[in-house]
Design goal:
3 helices, elongated, mainly alpha, about 75% helix
Length: about 60
């Protein structure tokens, strides 16, 4: 029983970290996506993976 719970916790934590990393790479808000990854797990990771990156080039 305990190992099954630990697997869920590690899966959700891993999803949160992976979601935050992908969000940072795409120019999104890292903390917001980390929290979404913690709540939604793999669904948030899938969502951020299909999103387009933001264009942060503001050079004039």
């Amino acid at each position: 029983m305990e190992s099954r719970g630990m697997i869920w916790i590690l899966t959700w934590l891993g999803s949160a970290v992976a979601t935050a990393v992908v969000a940072e790479f795409k120019g999104r808000r890292v903390m917001s996506w980390f929290l979404l990854g913690g709540v939604l797990g793999p669904l948030a990771l899938a969502a951020v993976l299909v999103m387009k990156g933001l264009d942060n080039d503001t050079d004039v």
